[in-house]
Design brief:
binds 1,4-dihydronicotinamide adenine dinucleotide, about 725 residues, alpha/beta, about 15% strand, 29 helices, globular, 2-enoyl-CoA Hydratase, Chain A, domain 1, N-(1-d-carboxylethyl)-l-norvaline Dehydrogenase, domain 2
Length: about 725
């Protein structure tokens, strides 16, 4: 049942409440946030507005969140479609809040409690049967904008309908991936995840390894985030770790593995000093000026950061995870020693816990992957290193609690691009079958770069007319880092200006060709320069919210030359003012921080969409492709006014405040030629090509390109 939730009241404006309120406001919900009084809610929300990384896609969204005091704003609670409680982790405080709000709740409203590990059943005590059937626990991960996992915890009294409705709502409308967990201490994430954090520290201390060594072993080498173990401790906060561990120790007296939740020596030392991690400015690591210091686990003093010097990690780095782990366990050095001490017991503990705390090994693994960023969860890892007699996963089957193989979850809406079968392989792209007559063109170049080879091959393919409706995307980690800078550098240094003209012309023609076909660009990661020019030639651009979109050509001393300047000119032809703003955006080489930010800069059109669910980009792109209609640029809108002068004025002001160099102004001058002087779309394209001829003859542009290719960073000269 779709409850059509629109209005959410979040209670408790701390780290989690503010983060949840921000996330829901980002998604377009009408959100109110309540705390004990006006001062408390304002102070807490002001802190949230300054959070790094930011909670909001665009800062203005913060102004849409209504702030209020719990005593006064009872009407807000009466109106809410969902009351989302996120106050302090104290059972008594939560219980008295629920007794206060129970009479106010609408009979069909969702009511949830956010907690790291309190028993949900206890929080529902004293409430009516109706309340208890609707009441459910949520365990959001911090920060909600960036971490998609949500553990959903029904009590034995929560109705099946509530679990179903809430899961469906959170997945479909709140950009979450839900794992339903049992109402046990710490649920899955904190029970097992916190234990594995503690246990890594105990192993490090026992074996006499350094924090750097353990972070190197328990980082990407073991398929985990760069933060490894000790950076993660500092990030989470040693005080929070201790609270969670104490809660588990008190509530799981019969679990023999909890003995490893006793505080490790170094953790106790830091905790006593108040050096509880990043929020205290120091923990296992400390910054002193430009130096990074780290704690010596034996002597318990800070010293300069040491290189881990573990050659075996580098030697195995390129292998797939399964091989790396198997080989790692056999190494005769510190890496092998640590892994043999750490990994087998970790897998054994997961096996011990699995039936008590989760509804299956797939759920368990998902929590560790989505909540802790592990490449594979403990059961998939057990399969990789052959830790158990029977495999937990076998193709699309998995082992259930009775030891039988049952079907794994079937969730086609969350398919990645690799889940669609390849039906044709070309040198620079694959064609994948998406179903219902939609195919995906997936570039296979490094960083999705539009190389000369890709442009030629894709043009020939599209001209052949073999594809009628498609999604344009990439198999790399980003949609596209842009056009082929290496080619441009070659043209400039060998003075092959005819090749340049031809290459650019082909690229512009490819954009025009794409624009005549029903197509959707599925954009994620970077979508820059030439990549954006092709994406925006598609009928619709569908972007993941964190996609960074823009036209940074000015940063390499050029202007958008694959139709980008022409498109921007055409789309901002409402008046002189709009064009001047565009001239600034292009001259500064602006790249948006995320998709919503890109809309603000005018990179996205009204028909373009942000796909907020992090795992639904390709399903949405395919659905959009089914109804896409091509939008080739037709006609031309003249804009009157003293545009040339206004743009020059704008540049001169930017130069005065140091935002543009003299060379930036020369680049800007070429942008101005296209924006202010073009008489048709074709003329604008010709002016783009001409700008390349002019700018690639400039030494400062060539220096910028070379610097970008060598360092990946812009040169301001
Ligand atoms: P916090 O301590 O930062 O914020 C709690 C807020 O609740 C404070 O602003 C406080 O003034 C307010 N509050 C207390 N009693 C209230 C009442 N009766 N009515 C209205 N507001 C009241 O706590 P945080 O970290 O935001 O945690 C909130 C909940 O989420 C806790 O249950 C916590 O265990 C859980 N959680 C926290 C995570 C984290 O990373 N901080 C992660 C996941 C869950």
């Amino acid at each position: 049942m779709d409850r059509n939730v629109r209005y959410v009241v979040v209670i408790g404006a701390g780290t989690m409440g503010s983060g949840i309120a921000a996330h829901l406001a980002n998604l377009g919900f009408d959100v109110s946030l309540l705390d004990v009084n006006d001062e408390a809610v304002k102070a807490a929300f002001d802190r949230a507005k300054k959070a790094r990384p930011p909670h909001f896609y665009v800062a203005d969204t913060a102004e849409t969140v209504r702030l209020g005091s719990i005593d006064r704003e009872t009407q807000w609670i009466r109106d809410a479609d969902w009351v989302c409680e996120a106050i302090v982790e104290k059972a008594e405080a939560k219980k008295s809040l629920f007794s206060l709000i129970e009479p106010l709740l609408r009979p069909d409203a969702f009511i949830s409690t956010n907690t790291s590990g309190l028993e949900i059943s206890v929080l529902a005590q004293g409430r009516s049967a109706d309340f208890r059937s609707r009441f459910i626990g949520t365990h959001f991960f911090n920060p909600p904008r960036y971490l998609k996992l949500l553990e959903l915890i029904p009590t034995p009294e929560t109705s099946a309908q509530t679990v179903k409705d809430m899961s469906a709502f959170l997945e479909a409308r709140c950009a979450r991936r839900v794992v339903v967990a049992k109402d046990t201490p710490g649920f899955i994430a904190n029970r097992f995840g916190m234990w594995s954090m503690y246990y890594a520290t105990h192993c490090a201390e026992k074996l006499g390894l350094t924090v750097e060594q353990v972070d190197a072993i328990t980082g990407p080498f073991m398929g985990r985030p760069r933060s490894g173990s000790f950076r993660l401790n500092d990030l989470v906060g040693l005080d929070i770790m201790e609270d969670i561990a104490n809660n588990l120790l008190a509530r799981c007296p019969d679990d023999p593995y909890t003995k490893h939740l006793a505080p490790p020596r170094s953790l106790k030392y830091l905790r006593d000093k108040g050096w509880i991690g990043d929020k205290a400015g120091q923990g296992y690591y400390r910054r002193e000026g430009k130096e990074l210091m780290s704690l010596d686990l034996q002597g318990l003093g800070y010293r300069m950061r040491l290189e881990p010097q573990l050659g075996s990690i580098d030697a195995l780095a390129k292998m797939p995870l399964a091989e790396r782990l198997r080989e790692g366990l056999n190494l005769r050095d510190e890496v092998g020693e640590f892994m043999r001490a750490y990994l087998p017991l970790t897998l054994e503990y997961a096996e011990y816990l699995k039936n008590d705390i989760s509804h299956g090994v797939e759920d368990f693994d998902r929590v560790m992957m989505w909540g802790f960023g592990w490449e594979a969860g403990p059961f998939a890892i057990a399969d990789m290193v052959h830790a158990a007699p029977k495999k937990y996963f076998d193709g699309d089957k998995m082992l259930d609690s009775a030891g039988n193989y049952v079907a794994r979850k079937h969730e086609p809406q969350y398919r990645t691009i690799q889940d669609f079968p390849i039906i044709a392989k070309h040198d620079h792209f694959n064609i994948r079958e998406m179903g219902d007559g939609v195919e995906a063109i997936c570039t296979t170049t490094k960083m999705g770069v539009f190389t000369i080879g890709l442009v030629d091959e894709l043009t020939a393919f599209l001209e052949d007319g073999k594809i009628s409706r498609f999604v344009l995307t990439s198999e790399a980690k980003s949609f596209s880092a842009g056009y082929d800078l290496q080619f441009l550098l070659g043209c400039a240094s060998e003075k092959r200006f005819d090749d340049l003209e031809k290459g650019l012309n082909k690229f512009q023609q490819l954009g025009l060709l794409i624009s005549k076909l029903p197509s959707v660009a599925a954009v994620f990661g970077f979508c820059l320069g030439g990549g954006f020019e092709m994406a925006t030639s598609c009928s619709v651009l569908a972007a993941q919210p964190e996609a960074q979109i823009g036209l940074p050509e000015a940063k390499v001393g050029l202007i958008p030359g694959g139709g980008g300047t022409a498109h921007i000119r055409q789309r901002n032809s409402t008046g002189a003012k709009a064009l001047v703003e565009s001239a600034k955006v292009l001259a500064l080489g602006t790249v948006s921080a995320n998709a919503d930010d890109a809309r603000r800069y005018g990179f996205l059109r009204r028909e373009d969409v942000t796909v907020y669910h992090p795992d639904m980009l390709f399903t949405e792109a395919k659905n959009l492709a089914l109804k896409a209609t091509p939008k080739p640029e037709t006609g031309w809108t003249d804009v009157s006014g003293p545009i040339t002068g206004m743009i020059e004025q704008a540049y001169s002001e930017l130069q005065k405040v140091g935002e543009m160099t003299e060379h930036d102004v020369r680049v800007g001058d070429q942008i101005k030629q296209v924006l202010a002087k073009s008489t048709s779309f074709e003329d604008a394209l010709a002016r783009e090509r001409n700008a390349f001829q002019v700018l690639l003859k400039e030494g400062l542009t060539v220096l910028r390109i070379r610097h970008m290719l060598e360092t990946g960073k812009p040169l301001k000269n």
